[in-house]
Structure formats: structure tokens, C-alpha cells
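Long-time lurker, finally posting.

We've been working with Glycosyltransferase family 4 protein (Rhizobium brockwellii) and I want a structural starting point before designing mutants. I don't trust myself to interpret raw outputs, so I'm hoping someone here can both generate the C-alpha cells and explain anything notable. Sequence follows.
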Amino acid sequence: MTLKATTSLPDARAFLGDAPVMAKRRVTEAGSATDTKQLRVAIVHYWLVSMRGGEKVVEELCRMFPQADIFTLVCNRDRISDFLKTRNIRTSFLQKIPGAQRHYTKMLPLMPFALEQFDLQEYDLVLSSESGPAKGIITRADALHICYCHSPMRYIWDQFHVYRHGLPWVGRAMMSLTAPMLRAWDVTTASRVDTFVANSDYVASRIRRFYDRDSVVIHPPVATDDFAVGKGKGEFYLYAGQLTTYKRPDIAVRACTEAGRKLVVIGEGEQLAYLKSIAGPTVQFLGHQPFNVLRDHLSRCRALLFPGTEDFGILPVEAMASGRPVLAFDAGGARETVSSPLVGLRFAQQTTEALLETMAAFEEIEDDIDPQAIRAHSLKFSSTVFRERLTGLIDQQLSKRADRSVDPFRRRAG
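Top reply, 14 upvotes:
Generated this for you. Predicted structure of Glycosyltransferase family 4 protein:
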């Protein structure tokens, strides 16, 4: 006996999925015409309380999708760029808790619940920016969810013990109690993502390890046009960034103190007092500085010292866009950016002694380094390259989704 369809193709389309018909039409048309301007787009970022690498990625996403709305757990408008202030930013209930803009990290156990309260049913394309919890949002069944992963949450995975040791006993106890539940939630919500994008090969390996998911590597955008090659030989070594334990600023401070080399430290954090206590007279601390001051120091330094392990590390590329070499610990994203002796050197051990040896080797070849060649290398990580690669990926994924929404009915009708 031959079975025949009792429902016509137009009638069958009425039963497709959970989303409104107009939303499906937007996805189908965008997939076929590779025009995403008609899509409703949501950008989900963990928190907006400073302007670091993750926030710069959010800025670039907003330029790619000017119609997008931003969802974030907590926002401090005094610490974000003027550009982001013009965007439609929606915060979670955590924003209403007194002191949330300063003590947001202490609210980590509440963040999964806060994320899942965001209503994203009207959005066709959801771009989550993951480092703190962001990918765990709940999207419409037929929406495309692409997660740009700066890192799986360090404080519950490979950096768990580092963060835990830095807390008072109450914080350590709370972290021990809540971390297993957060890990389970983090792994479970990986299935809510259609496509993972990793910001480096290093992060791609961590996504595979913790989530058992493959990812596409697209390096984050670096605004290389904002930097210019400095003139003359550099005047000092430079460390810039958060003064936290895992970034190991102590290695840079000790090395320059022992060698009697000038070091300028730009940044703030809980290690500031300790670093000042071990620093010699050749080390200068400037604290937090605006972008124009950082840019000026990048153009005038002998080299950027980068002793920590970063998932990618935008700052080394900014230094290279200024024509300055980088002396970096041989781990993480530095293996992909400081990839040639023409642009800098890497040291194999995360110790003061290893950095001192690398500084000595650098100073022997310092006069032969070509600033223009260093800048040319940095352009591989420009915002233009980022936009082209991410746009191509989104177009590809939308086309696949549009094909899937049509083909089943064609097969049934036949």
C-alpha cells in the first residue's frame, strides 16, 4: 500500500517550528541573500564594566550589526566607551543589587538564573560573547546561536584553584560548594549553541576539552589603525594590564628590578601594593590610564613584557601595530601572535630568570629589528580580517538553516 500525504505544502508550512512565520521568513531570506540587515539580532555579553578585549569584540559586533540589542548581566556606563553608550543595553536583575557594578564577580552563583530570564524570543540571530557566563541564554528554537568564546569560564575550570586561593575562607567555602553546580550548568548549556567560534587555537582546545565541541578559530579584532609606529629606539620596557596573580606582573617587575632596566607599569588590581613592595627605583607605576596614554607608551617602549598566559591577548598585537616587539611567555595565544623572531621572543618558563635571559637575548638584536615589519605582521589580526571571516561564517550558517527549513517539505511533497 502506498501512503500519500494528506497535507499540502502550504498547509504543512503552518506547522513548522515554534517561531512566528515572519521570523522564519527573515531567516530564510537572509540566508539566501546573505543580507543580515533584516534580521533581529541580540548580542549577549557577560558584563560591561570596563573596556578590555571582550568589550572591544562587542564593539565590533555592534558595528557589524547596528540594529542589534545588547544583553548583559551588569553594566557600568562610566567605564564603557562612548560608542557602546549609544547602544540599546539591557541588564539583568543583578544590576539592581547595591554594589553590583563593583562586586559582580561575587554573584557568580546567581548568574545562570539571571541569564535565563532574558527573553530573546523575537531574535533571529543571537551572538553570545563568552568568558563569564553568556552562552547559557535561551533562544527561540529556530534562531541561530553563535558563541564567540574568549574562554570557557576560567574560575570554574582550569583556573579554579588559582582564583579560590585568592579568596578569604568564606569565599573559598562558597566557591567549593557552588563550582560543581556551575560546571554542570556550563557543560549542559554548551548544547544551546549552534556554532562555537574560538578566539585562538588555544581556546579551541579548551572548548573541545570542557564542552566536547568543535569550533572555528577566528582571532579577535584589533583596531590596528588606531596605532602608529613609534620613532627611534624605545626608552623603557612596558607592562600593561590587570595586576592580578594569573597575569604574573611580578615576573616583569622582578626582572627589570634585578637588571636595572626602566619599566613602566600601566594597570590596576589587587597585586598593586605587593608589586610596589618588590619593585626597585627603575620601576614606575602609573595605575589605570586612558587609551591615549596607553597608545603613547606602546609607541615609545623598547618592548612589551607579557609574562602571563592569555587565551589570545590583544595587547601584544596592539604593541606590534605600534612597531614594537613583544617578549612573551610561551603559552596560550602568544604562540599564535608572537610567532616569529622578527616580531618578538618567547620564553619557555614562567620565571624571572627566563625573562631575564630573554631580555638579554633581545637586547643583542634590538638594533636589527624592523618596526615596519612588526606592524605588517599585526595586520593579520585587524578588524577588517575579523569582520570578513565572521560575516562569511554567519552567512554560511544562515544558508544552511534556510535550506533545512525548506528541504523537508520538498521531500515530503515528493
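Before you design anything, note these points.
The radius of gyration is 24 Å.
Confidence is low (pLDDT under 50) at residues 1-22, 408-414.
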